[in-house]
Amino acid sequence: MNRSRIKALVSRRFWHAFGQISRRIRCLSQVRATLDSIGVWADALSSVLNQNAGAWRNGPASAIIEARVIRWLCDLIDYGPASYGTLASGGSEANLIALKCARDNVVETIKDRGVRTAPGELVIYASEQCHYSIDKSADLLGLGRDGVRKIPTDERFHIRVDELRRQIDRDREEGRLACCIVGVAGTTSTGVIDPLEELAAIARENNCWYHIDAAYGGPLAFSDQYKNLLRGISLANSVTFDPHKWMFVPFACGATLVRDGAKVLRDAFDMSPEYLSEDRGGADVEFDFFRYGQMGTRRFNSLKLWMAIKYMGREGYAATVERHISLTKYLAERLDAMPEFRRVGEVETAVCCFQFQPESAEIMDGPERDGLQMRLQQMIERSGEAWLTTTVLNGRRTLRVNINSFLTQQRHIDDLLESLARYAAKL
Ligand SMILES: Cc1ncc(COP(=O)(O)O)c(C=O)c1O
Fold this sequence. Notes:
Blueprint: H1 3-25, H2 37-49, H3 60-76, E1 84-88, H4 91-106, H5 110-113, E2 122-127, H6 133-140, E3 148-151, H7 161-173, E4 177-184, H8 196-205, E5 209-213, E6 238-241, E7 254-258, H9 262-269, H10 302-336, E8 341-344, E9 351-356, H11 366-383, E10 389-393, E11 396-402, H12 410-426
Parallel strand pairs: 2-3, 2-4, 4-5, 5-6
Antiparallel strand pairs: 1-7, 6-7, 8-9, 9-11, 10-11
Helix pairs in contact: 2-10, 3-10, 4-6, 4-9, 10-12
Bound molecules: pyridoxal-5'-phosphate.
Residues 31, 90-92, 95, 131, 133, 184, 186, 188, 213, 215-216, 242, 254 line the site of pyridoxal-5'-phosphate.
């Protein structure tokens, strides 16, 4: 290949990469965080080393590093010294692992002899706004998707604790057992945080497992300004974290943390296959992560999380989380000043939901209004100027912005507002 061809190729690659990055800056939709460059290098290094993070004997360095990052995440949410956890492929798997512990906690026999040995139908309680992985987990765990009670939310999309109490009482009267209450710290559609302390009290009163899905909101714990939003998180039996969201770690990296120690996870998952269970005095069991979830061979994922935390530090994450929330509040204020847009819910984290409602929409029925939101979203997406998405709130299609790139600045929000106004005028 001659020099000019190589130069042309490099330049094309450069602009392609640049385009990717600039799109991420304006990628204001589902959490596809701009990556921390250190995470990319760490991910490559993990591939080169190709350690199997399943058993200590196969990957001692990965095991020690995984235990270290788990400790950092536990300390971040003020879990006590007994707490432990495991990395998972993402928030969905982390929720599944936690709910398996919750299910097995009801009766000892379930793990070996199935849910038919429970003295009643098991029920999981979560808000209508919980992530769909809760339903999937209920199905995989033999409780069935109908085993998840979707509790209505208030006008700001937090779980209603009065409705939760009523539903638990109703189920108890009908012979069902409360298996788990799930609180969400950062709901997928609106980013709001359930009343975590109150949910802990209800779980305690009903003697059931309490899980918090902090896949999105967990990193609020880095910020002194916003940590109080997670008040009560350390009361949960288990917590889902998802570092590939607001911690900018390359996909895939989730985590399940458990308050009462490694044994909780081992009780739910441990097996001792002959080829992995030579007696070495028991010291390696604690670092055999295959005993803590359903994966056998596991990728050395802890390295990218370890490096990301070292690189960003507590202050780096805190500053990013705080900046994202203030940019989102700025967006909300600007939208409030645009009469043809109406915000839905409140901004608690870096998610802002709103609808396009021009005067002409007043005579439209619900589906027509939904169509209007979809058309506006699609016009902006096709223009390539930004990417926002839609969700459904109170039964109606709603535009949704989530700021999740540390490269996004106020001028990008101004550009988005300008695009919204320009394309809305064409509808
Ligand atoms: C609250 C919440 N929990 C769990 C998940 C699932 O995470 P993942 O996509 O990493 O499996 C998501 C994803 O958006 C989420 O928002």
